[in-house]
Amino acid sequence: MPAQRPLVVKVGGHAAVDPDAVCADVAETVRAGRPVVLVHGGSADIDRLGARLGVPARRLTAPDGITTRHTDAATLEVVQLALAGLVRPRLVACLLAHGVRAVGLSGVDGGLLRARRKAAHRAWEDGRRVVVRDVHSGRITGVDAALLHTLLAAGALPVVGPPALAEDGRPVNADADRVAAAVAAAVGAGTLVLLTGAPGVLADPTDETSVLATCAVPPDGPPPHRDGGMGLKLVAAREALTAGVPEVLVADGRRAQPLTRALAGEATRIELAANTKEGGNG
Length: 282
Description:
alpha/beta; Carbamate kinase; 7 helices
């Protein structure tokens, strides 16, 4: 394991997130001596490729109000094509251009990410509660931290994304924020930074000036903010904190030096509600 605790950075798939700025800043952080694992999503690329291939995106809203991508068999193929063929090579190439020896890995490579396949998904659709059974997604149950530490010790920067490997030996989609949380816990990260298409968690989702300095998340149940895809990020943050990651930040991935600025305080710090005072805007 590196002498310094790794930093895990998740770069969101929101179309407005600037991957070049993220990679430049991550590269600078690595050159300064901080080991980094970069985890990525790819929602915008998945949606664009799906539209080209005639596989429309479908969203499911769970009973707790959190919206997720419905991954049927066709969508899983699109996810794998987009992430392995577009998103990850672009990030790796950009990091290499900045002088960092980046290594791209899917969760299937080496069995890096293990998951439990979801049997069904309960959701609201057209005002009624439904059970969707054509599900090719799962929840992360294990991370091969030794593989990641081996790469970090060799001076490489792992670039990791879904899919994961289910217990039946087949790939399943997994939420990238929750992948980042599991990776951060597994490698003993000092900080997990979730870079997204917003300046942080917003008190008012229509007002980007309403960014919260801190956001308290309850130990279970729905998170306090769910608009704009923030619900799953807060669930992921809770999972990371519960697993022992000391610091989780949600920050703007659309600007120059997004990682440096997040670590300098331009971010929403996520805390467990049991350890904070109510009110949560710091």
